Protein backbone atom coordinates (compact mmCIF):
# COMPACT_ATOMS: atom_id res chain seq x y z
CA UNK A 1 0.00 0.00 0.00
CA UNK A 2 1.43 3.33 -1.07
CA UNK A 3 1.52 6.15 1.42
CA UNK A 4 -1.23 8.69 0.97
CA UNK A 5 0.60 11.92 1.77
CA UNK A 6 -2.30 14.11 0.65
CA UNK A 7 -4.80 12.34 2.90
CA UNK A 8 -2.56 12.56 5.98
CA UNK A 9 -1.84 16.22 5.26
CA UNK A 10 -5.56 16.92 4.96
CA UNK A 11 -6.30 15.08 8.20
CA UNK A 12 -3.55 17.01 9.94
CA UNK A 13 -4.93 20.39 8.94
CA UNK A 14 -8.47 19.36 9.81
CA UNK A 15 -7.22 18.47 13.28
CA UNK A 16 -5.61 21.88 13.70
CA UNK A 17 -8.78 23.68 12.59
CA UNK A 18 -10.94 21.90 15.17
CA UNK A 19 -12.96 24.21 17.41
CA UNK A 20 -12.55 23.86 21.17
CA UNK A 21 -15.74 23.13 23.11
CA UNK A 22 -15.82 24.36 26.70
CA UNK A 23 -18.79 22.06 27.34
CA UNK A 24 -16.36 19.12 27.15
CA UNK A 25 -14.00 20.41 29.85
CA UNK A 26 -15.63 18.38 32.60
CA UNK A 27 -14.71 15.26 30.59
CA UNK A 28 -11.13 16.53 30.53
CA UNK A 29 -11.06 17.06 34.30
CA UNK A 30 -12.70 13.68 35.04
CA UNK A 31 -10.10 11.93 32.88
CA UNK A 32 -7.28 13.58 34.82
CA UNK A 33 -8.91 12.89 38.21
CA UNK A 34 -9.27 9.20 37.37
CA UNK A 35 -5.47 8.89 37.20
CA UNK A 36 -4.45 11.06 40.15
CA UNK A 37 -3.39 8.57 42.79
CA UNK A 38 -0.49 8.64 45.27
CA UNK A 39 0.98 5.76 43.23
CA UNK A 40 1.03 7.72 39.94
CA UNK A 41 4.36 7.28 38.17
CA UNK A 42 6.79 10.17 38.07
CA UNK A 43 6.22 11.12 34.43
CA UNK A 44 3.23 10.32 32.22
CA UNK A 45 0.79 11.76 29.70
CA UNK A 46 -2.58 11.98 31.44
CA UNK A 47 -4.67 13.35 28.56
CA UNK A 48 -3.91 13.17 24.84
CA UNK A 49 -6.45 15.29 23.03
CA UNK A 50 -4.19 15.27 19.98
CA UNK A 51 -5.28 11.68 19.43
CA UNK A 52 -8.69 13.10 18.45
CA UNK A 53 -10.64 10.67 20.64
CA UNK A 54 -12.39 13.49 22.54
CA UNK A 55 -14.30 15.86 20.22
CA UNK A 56 -13.85 19.47 21.22
CA UNK A 57 -10.65 18.75 23.18
CA UNK A 58 -8.27 18.01 20.31
CA UNK A 59 -6.04 20.97 21.13
CA UNK A 60 -5.37 19.96 24.76
CA UNK A 61 -2.79 17.68 26.34
CA UNK A 62 -1.93 17.16 30.01
CA UNK A 63 1.32 15.72 31.35
CA UNK A 64 2.33 14.72 34.87
CA UNK A 65 5.90 15.88 35.30
CA UNK A 66 7.39 15.26 38.71
CA UNK A 67 4.15 15.93 40.66
CA UNK A 68 3.30 18.86 38.41
CA UNK A 69 0.36 19.00 36.02
CA UNK A 70 1.43 20.73 32.79
CA UNK A 71 -1.33 21.42 30.29
CA UNK A 72 -0.59 22.43 26.70
CA UNK A 73 -2.90 24.40 24.43
CA UNK A 74 -2.07 24.02 20.74
CA UNK A 75 -4.55 26.57 19.42
CA UNK A 76 -5.65 29.93 20.77
CA UNK A 77 -8.96 29.37 22.58
CA UNK A 78 -11.95 31.64 22.79
CA UNK A 79 -11.96 33.71 26.01
CA UNK A 80 -14.87 31.71 27.42
CA UNK A 81 -12.98 28.44 26.90
CA UNK A 82 -9.98 29.80 28.79
CA UNK A 83 -12.17 31.12 31.60
CA UNK A 84 -13.92 27.76 31.99
CA UNK A 85 -10.63 25.83 31.79
CA UNK A 86 -9.03 27.87 34.58
CA UNK A 87 -12.20 27.62 36.66
CA UNK A 88 -12.27 23.82 36.32
CA UNK A 89 -8.57 23.56 37.19
CA UNK A 90 -9.02 25.68 40.31
CA UNK A 91 -11.93 23.47 41.36
CA UNK A 92 -9.75 20.42 40.79
CA UNK A 93 -7.22 21.70 43.35
CA UNK A 94 -9.93 21.93 46.01
CA UNK A 95 -10.75 18.22 45.96
CA UNK A 96 -9.41 15.37 48.09
CA UNK A 97 -8.12 13.50 45.03
CA UNK A 98 -5.82 16.39 44.14
CA UNK A 99 -4.36 16.72 47.61
CA UNK A 100 -3.88 12.96 48.01
CA UNK A 101 -1.88 12.88 44.77
CA UNK A 102 0.88 15.07 46.20
CA UNK A 103 0.55 17.53 43.32
CA UNK A 104 2.62 20.70 43.61
CA UNK A 105 1.65 22.81 40.61
CA UNK A 106 -0.62 23.37 37.63
CA UNK A 107 0.94 25.20 34.69
CA UNK A 108 -0.50 26.07 31.30
CA UNK A 109 1.67 26.30 28.20
CA UNK A 110 0.45 28.22 25.16
CA UNK A 111 2.07 26.25 22.34
CA UNK A 112 0.41 28.38 19.65
CA UNK A 113 2.42 31.43 20.76
CA UNK A 114 5.90 32.12 19.47
CA UNK A 115 7.54 31.86 22.87
CA UNK A 116 5.16 29.22 24.32
CA UNK A 117 4.27 31.35 27.33
CA UNK A 118 3.85 29.34 30.57
CA UNK A 119 1.20 30.46 33.06
CA UNK A 120 1.20 29.03 36.58
CA UNK A 121 -2.41 28.45 37.62
CA UNK A 122 -1.75 26.97 41.06
CA UNK A 123 1.29 26.31 43.24
CA UNK A 124 4.92 26.95 42.32
CA UNK A 125 6.52 25.60 39.17
CA UNK A 126 9.75 23.63 39.55
CA UNK A 127 11.40 24.17 36.18
CA UNK A 128 14.01 21.42 36.41
CA UNK A 129 12.52 18.42 38.19
CA UNK A 130 14.26 15.04 38.03
CA UNK A 131 11.77 12.37 37.01
CA UNK A 132 11.94 8.59 36.94
CA UNK A 133 10.99 6.49 33.92
CA UNK A 134 11.26 2.73 34.52
CA UNK A 135 14.10 3.28 36.97
CA UNK A 136 16.03 5.76 34.81
CA UNK A 137 16.41 9.39 35.83
CA UNK A 138 15.97 12.39 33.55
CA UNK A 139 16.10 16.09 34.32
CA UNK A 140 13.41 18.12 32.61
CA UNK A 141 13.40 21.76 31.54
CA UNK A 142 9.86 23.09 31.83
CA UNK A 143 8.75 26.49 30.62
CA UNK A 144 11.66 27.80 28.57
CA UNK A 145 11.31 25.73 25.40
CA UNK A 146 8.53 24.12 23.42
CA UNK A 147 9.62 20.66 24.57
CA UNK A 148 10.68 19.79 28.10
CA UNK A 149 13.49 17.32 27.41
CA UNK A 150 11.84 13.90 27.21
CA UNK A 151 9.36 12.70 24.59
CA UNK A 152 6.87 10.61 26.54
CA UNK A 153 5.42 8.81 23.52
CA UNK A 154 8.87 7.28 22.91
CA UNK A 155 8.99 5.43 26.24
CA UNK A 156 8.41 2.06 24.53
CA UNK A 157 11.24 2.81 22.12
CA UNK A 158 13.61 3.55 24.98
CA UNK A 159 12.57 0.32 26.69
CA UNK A 160 13.11 -1.68 23.47
CA UNK A 161 16.62 -0.23 23.17
CA UNK A 162 17.35 -1.04 26.80
CA UNK A 163 16.34 -4.67 26.27
CA UNK A 164 18.21 -5.22 22.98
CA UNK A 165 21.64 -3.55 23.07
CA UNK A 166 23.80 -5.57 25.45
CA UNK A 167 27.40 -5.47 24.23
CA UNK A 168 26.52 -3.39 21.15
CA UNK A 169 27.88 -0.19 19.63
CA UNK A 170 25.05 2.30 19.13
CA UNK A 171 24.69 5.40 16.96
CA UNK A 172 22.01 7.83 18.17
CA UNK A 173 21.18 10.36 15.45
CA UNK A 174 19.25 13.53 16.38
CA UNK A 175 20.06 12.60 19.97
CA UNK A 176 18.41 15.64 21.63
CA UNK A 177 18.91 15.11 25.39
CA UNK A 178 20.12 11.53 24.88
CA UNK A 179 17.14 9.58 26.19
CA UNK A 180 17.97 6.64 23.91
CA UNK A 181 21.60 6.81 25.00
CA UNK A 182 20.68 6.63 28.68
CA UNK A 183 18.50 3.59 27.95
CA UNK A 184 21.26 1.97 25.89
CA UNK A 185 23.96 2.31 28.54
CA UNK A 186 21.49 1.06 31.17
CA UNK A 187 20.92 -1.95 28.91
CA UNK A 188 24.61 -2.79 28.69
CA UNK A 189 25.61 -1.15 25.41
CA UNK A 190 29.35 -1.20 24.83
CA UNK A 191 29.49 2.34 23.44
CA UNK A 192 27.04 5.03 22.30
CA UNK A 193 27.70 7.91 19.91
CA UNK A 194 25.19 10.78 20.20
CA UNK A 195 24.96 13.23 17.31
CA UNK A 196 22.94 16.46 17.40
CA UNK A 197 23.71 19.96 16.16
CA UNK A 198 22.22 21.43 19.37
CA UNK A 199 25.17 21.32 21.77
CA UNK A 200 23.02 22.59 24.64
CA UNK A 201 20.78 19.53 24.29
CA UNK A 202 23.80 17.23 24.30
CA UNK A 203 25.03 18.93 27.48
CA UNK A 204 21.71 18.06 29.10
CA UNK A 205 22.15 14.53 27.80
CA UNK A 206 25.52 14.33 29.51
CA UNK A 207 23.86 15.40 32.76
CA UNK A 208 21.20 12.73 32.31
CA UNK A 209 23.93 10.10 32.10
CA UNK A 210 25.52 11.51 35.26
CA UNK A 211 22.18 11.33 37.07
CA UNK A 212 22.19 7.61 36.34
CA UNK A 213 25.84 7.22 37.40
CA UNK A 214 26.87 5.97 33.96
CA UNK A 215 30.45 5.56 32.79
CA UNK A 216 30.90 8.49 30.42
CA UNK A 217 33.89 6.77 28.81
CA UNK A 218 31.29 4.64 27.04
CA UNK A 219 29.42 7.68 25.71
CA UNK A 220 30.45 10.09 22.96
CA UNK A 221 28.79 13.45 22.21
CA UNK A 222 29.14 14.99 18.74
CA UNK A 223 27.68 18.50 18.38
CA UNK A 224 27.63 18.53 14.60
CA UNK A 225 25.29 18.88 11.65
CA UNK A 226 24.71 15.25 10.69
CA UNK A 227 24.71 15.95 6.96
CA UNK A 228 28.16 17.58 7.16
CA UNK A 229 29.74 15.02 9.48
CA UNK A 230 29.40 11.59 7.91
CA UNK A 231 33.18 11.13 7.93
CA UNK A 232 33.40 11.72 11.69
CA UNK A 233 30.36 9.54 12.33
CA UNK A 234 31.76 6.71 10.19
CA UNK A 235 35.10 6.86 12.02
CA UNK A 236 33.45 5.82 15.31
CA UNK A 237 31.61 2.89 13.68
CA UNK A 238 30.55 0.48 12.48
CA UNK A 239 27.46 0.25 14.64
CA UNK A 240 25.29 -2.65 15.71
CA UNK A 241 22.26 -0.40 16.18
CA UNK A 242 21.46 2.92 14.55
CA UNK A 243 18.64 5.04 15.99
CA UNK A 244 17.10 7.70 13.74
CA UNK A 245 14.60 10.00 15.46
CA UNK A 246 14.57 13.31 13.59
CA UNK A 247 12.22 16.26 13.93
CA UNK A 248 9.44 16.33 11.35
CA UNK A 249 10.70 19.73 10.25
CA UNK A 250 13.44 22.02 11.47
CA UNK A 251 13.83 25.26 9.55
CA UNK A 252 17.13 25.39 7.72
CA UNK A 253 18.33 21.94 8.79
CA UNK A 254 15.81 19.14 8.23
CA UNK A 255 12.84 18.47 5.96
CA UNK A 256 11.36 15.02 6.54
CA UNK A 257 10.47 13.69 3.10
CA UNK A 258 13.62 15.13 1.51
CA UNK A 259 16.30 14.48 4.11
CA UNK A 260 15.32 11.14 5.63
CA UNK A 261 16.30 9.53 2.35
CA UNK A 262 19.79 11.02 2.63
CA UNK A 263 20.26 9.34 6.00
CA UNK A 264 19.02 5.91 4.96
CA UNK A 265 21.37 5.72 1.99
CA UNK A 266 24.27 5.89 4.51
CA UNK A 267 23.22 2.72 6.35
CA UNK A 268 25.42 0.45 4.26
CA UNK A 269 28.61 2.25 5.32
CA UNK A 270 27.65 2.66 8.99
CA UNK A 271 25.99 -0.60 9.99
CA UNK A 272 27.56 -3.94 10.90
CA UNK A 273 26.61 -6.98 8.82
CA UNK A 274 23.96 -8.12 11.31
CA UNK A 275 23.03 -4.66 12.54
CA UNK A 276 19.60 -3.16 13.22
CA UNK A 277 17.96 0.20 12.66
CA UNK A 278 15.28 1.86 14.77
CA UNK A 279 13.75 4.38 12.37
CA UNK A 280 11.22 6.83 13.79
CA UNK A 281 8.95 9.53 12.47
CA UNK A 282 6.34 11.53 14.38
CA UNK A 283 4.61 13.43 11.63
CA UNK A 284 0.88 12.91 11.04
CA UNK A 285 1.53 13.72 7.38
CA UNK A 286 3.14 10.35 6.56
CA UNK A 287 2.39 6.75 7.43
CA UNK A 288 4.54 3.67 8.03
CA UNK A 289 4.88 3.03 4.33
CA UNK A 290 6.96 6.17 3.99
CA UNK A 291 9.70 4.59 6.09
CA UNK A 292 9.30 1.08 4.68
CA UNK A 293 9.38 2.18 1.06
CA UNK A 294 12.19 4.71 1.52
CA UNK A 295 14.27 2.07 3.31
CA UNK A 296 13.59 -0.35 0.47
CA UNK A 297 14.81 2.25 -2.03
CA UNK A 298 17.92 3.42 -0.18
CA UNK A 299 18.96 0.39 1.95
CA UNK A 300 17.38 -2.69 0.35
CA UNK A 301 19.53 -5.05 2.45
CA UNK A 302 17.48 -4.04 5.52
CA UNK A 303 14.13 -5.75 6.08
CA UNK A 304 11.19 -4.40 8.05
CA UNK A 305 10.64 -6.41 11.24
CA UNK A 306 8.02 -4.68 13.38
CA UNK A 307 6.43 -1.46 14.50
CA UNK A 308 6.81 -0.79 18.22
CA UNK A 309 3.59 -0.14 20.08
CA UNK A 310 3.00 3.35 21.41
CA UNK A 311 2.05 3.81 25.08
CA UNK A 312 -1.72 3.29 25.46
CA UNK A 313 -2.20 6.84 26.73
CA UNK A 314 -1.11 8.08 23.27
CA UNK A 315 -3.86 6.20 21.43
CA UNK A 316 -4.86 7.97 18.22
CA UNK A 317 -8.09 7.76 16.25
CA UNK A 318 -5.83 7.18 13.25
CA UNK A 319 -2.85 5.01 14.30
CA UNK A 320 -0.91 6.10 11.22
CA UNK A 321 -0.99 9.72 12.39
CA UNK A 322 0.80 8.96 15.67
CA UNK A 323 4.43 8.11 16.35
CA UNK A 324 5.90 5.48 14.04
CA UNK A 325 8.90 3.58 15.47
CA UNK A 326 9.97 0.79 13.10
CA UNK A 327 12.63 -1.90 13.49
CA UNK A 328 14.67 -2.99 10.46
CA UNK A 329 17.34 -5.72 10.28
Automatic annotation (TrEMBL):
It comes from the Bacteria. Keywords: Methyltransferase, rRNA processing, S-adenosyl-L-methionine, Transferase. Residues 44-329 form the S-adenosylmethionine-dependent methyltransferase domain. GO terms for molecular function: methyltransferase activity. One of its GO terms (biological process) is rRNA processing. Its EC number is 2.1.1.191. It holds the Pfam family Methyltrans_SAM. This is Ribosomal RNA large subunit methyltransferase I. It comes from Vibrio aerogenes CECT 7868. The gene is rlmI_1.
